[in-house]
């Protein structure tokens, strides 16, 4: 478990390193990084989905602890590239809302999917989230810095989800599992609210 967390932190550092450089190369780059970083944390749908990816990875354990979040970040970058390039992806908003419902339900039901299946599922949802980030990039923002920003913010939210699962898990096998699954249920219900326009 500790080894997996170390790998996740190393992956975060690897992603963060270029972002620090982007943030200091000029006004356009700095603005791009700030806009990119703020985008995932500005919407409840993005926050819930990212945190649930982290909790889901925690529940699966083992290699999934770092493979699932890393897959999301990398595939999301591809989706972001499509959005920046103006390439249409259908049902983006629906896909984002469904990601909250599905990921929340998976956490609530404590689904033990194979790592490859989990990576495929989060990768599918990552396309929608990434496209939304890319399509909403301000015209005056530097693309690479903007992309680094939303990738870093997403990785941070995944780390929050992993940390949440780990901290709740310390409450004990019985109570910790119940708390984690309850958090997933709340997220799923919120996702339904987002999907129906009630939130």
SSE inventory with pairings:
Blueprint: H1 2-22, H2 27-38, H3 44-60, H4 64-84, H5 92-108, H6 115-135, H7 143-169, H8 173-196
Helix pairs in contact: 1-4, 1-7, 2-7, 3-4, 3-5, 3-6, 3-7, 3-8, 4-6, 4-7, 5-6, 5-8, 7-8
TL;DR of this structure?
Helices cover 80% and strands 0% of the residues.
The gyration radius over C-alpha positions equals 16 Å
What helical percentage do the residues reach? over 70%
Based on Cα principal axes, name the global outline.
Answer: globular
**How big a fraction of the residues is strand?**
under 5%
Domains, number: 1
- The arrangement of helices and strands along the chain is HHHHHHHH
In the predicted model, the low-confidence regions spanning at least 5 consecutive residues are 8-28
Largest β sheet strand count, sense and barrel closure: none
Mean pLDDT over the full residue set: 79
Figure out the total of helices: 8
In whole angstroms, the N-to-C terminal distance is 36 Å
Q: Would you tell me the structural class of the helices and strands?
A: mainly alpha
Mind explaining what this structure looks like?
By secondary structure, the protein is mostly helical. It has one domain. Helix content is 80%, strand content 0%. The protein is built from 8 helices and no strands. Helix 2 (27-38) packs parallel to helix 7 and helix 7 packs across helix 8. Mean pLDDT is 79; it is low at 8-28.
């Amino acid at each position: 478990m500790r080894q997996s967390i170390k790998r996740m932190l190393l992956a975060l550092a690897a992603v963060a390193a270029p972002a620090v450089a982007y943030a200091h190369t000029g006004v356009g780059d700095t603005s791009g990084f700030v806009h990119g970083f703020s985008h995932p944390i500005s919407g409840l749908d993005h926050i819930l989905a990212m945190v649930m990816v982290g909790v889901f990875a925690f529940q699966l354990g083992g290699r999934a602890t770092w493979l699932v979040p890393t897959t999301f970040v990398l595939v999301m970058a591809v989706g972001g590239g499509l959005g920046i390039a103006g390439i249409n992806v259908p049902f983006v908003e629906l896909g984002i809302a469904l990601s909250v419902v599905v990921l929340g339900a998976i956490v609530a039901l404590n689904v033990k999917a194979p790592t490859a299946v989990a990576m495929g599922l989060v990768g599918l949802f990552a396309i929608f989230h990434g496209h939304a980030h890319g399509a909403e990039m301000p015209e005056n923002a530097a693309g690479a810095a903007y992309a680094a920003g939303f990738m870093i913010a997403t990785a941070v939210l995944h780390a929050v989800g992993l940390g949440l699962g780990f901290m709740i898990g310390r409450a004990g096998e019985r109570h910790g599992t119940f708390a984690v699954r309850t958090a997933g249920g709340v997220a799923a219900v919120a996702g339904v609210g987002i999907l129906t326009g009630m939130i």
